[in-house]
User: Which sequence fits this backbone?
């Protein structure tokens, strides 16, 4: 019986050495207890830049002339609505405020 257990001990030591060497060579993280570890998540590549590449660059936001023109159009439309009486109400005079006063 002693030789069988000695053989198992030597085999276990060799396997442990092989596992440690493999981990060192390939950069793996050893987890002998088998508990959950965040190492897999920390090792993942960040994917924010890759997602951002899917969306085209908006040149309108870079050009101040385009932004100024859009703002001017918005203000002129708002002024036209106000003249017709269709503009936004003053603060505290809207639909929700009227509902609350009933």
Assistant:
């Amino acid at each position: 019986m002693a030789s069988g257990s000695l053989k198992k001990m030597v085999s276990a030591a060799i396997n442990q050495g092989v596992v440690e060497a493999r981990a060192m060579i390939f950069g793996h993280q050893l987890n002998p207890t088998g508990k959950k570890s965040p190492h897999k998540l920390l090792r993942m590549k960040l994917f924010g830049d890759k997602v951002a590449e899917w969306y085209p660059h908006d040149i309108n936001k870079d050009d101040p002339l385009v932004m100024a023109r859009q703002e001017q159009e918005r203000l002129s439309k708002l002024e036209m609505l106000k003249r017709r009486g269709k503009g936004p109400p003053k603060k505290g005079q809207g639909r929700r405020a009227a509902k609350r006063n009933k």
